[in-house]
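The protein record minuted underneath.
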Amino acid sequence: MSEKVIGEAVLVLQTILPRIFLGILAGSLIISSPIFRHITKYSVKFFKIRSSAAVAAFFADKAVGLSVLAEMYKKGVINEKEVVIASVLGLLPLSIRSTFLTLAPVSISTLGFKLGVSFLTIELLSKFIIAGIAYSFGRKITMSTETIMDYRNEQPVFSSLLFALKTFFRVSLIISLTVLLTAFLINSDNFTPIDERSMLILAGAGSTLAGFGVAGSLLSEGKLNEEVVLILLFVALALHRAVEAVRYTVPLNISLFGYKTGARVAALTFLANEISCIIGLVLAHVFVALRIIWGQHLYDI
């Protein structure tokens, strides 16, 4: 690997890694703050459903939220339909958490502020739409005026700092390898890579963070424009949800709920996630169309 390739990769990493670290640190402190704990607390009161405590538990982690749901399901507090509804509703707090902890720091650092915020806004909006549909559909069968279980999102500041460091090391490793490999493929004379669009999609299908790394490198090299990158990121995200389902979501659900119920919950949650990606893709096209109409950019997409 030539010194030029390594130099380009190091230059990019010197710019984005400090921003990513500060972003992850800030996100971890926000998650552990009393304000965020109040948000978790009031979300239980807002939903007014039997599984609201489990939905709030998704703010901590997917496994935590599903574990609370499994406990309620085994005790007969909620039925299978309510488990599905709560799992879909849990996509929203999961998205909010991941946005604060990793997506915002990485996307803004690699894609730039405008494109990064655009991606995050569309992603969160699509999750709000899915959560709204699930809540409207399931509110009648899950309505409750009493608190069945209580869940408190307690995370000490020291634990948050350790989590931030661990997250940064994981993210920086993925981003560093991705940026270095992308720089090598772009500058290689003896290697004919797949086209840039396919490169971004394949990287993002395996890891959203890797997708950001490839997208940032292609943007800096002028290989793709912002509008194309925004749309391709949502295509990659849809594929990544499928990989994530097979690798993590399905085994986790089956282990907690049993084969029959777990498979159903995983399948319907995956369907909701894919619909969310489709909504995001539609919103991304609308965003691009508006930019073209306003005359900010005129690209052939």
Observations:
- The longest helix spans residues 259-293.
- Residues 234 and 281 are 6 Å apart (CA to CA).
- The radius of gyration is 20 Å.
- Confidence is low (pLDDT under 50) at residues 297-301.
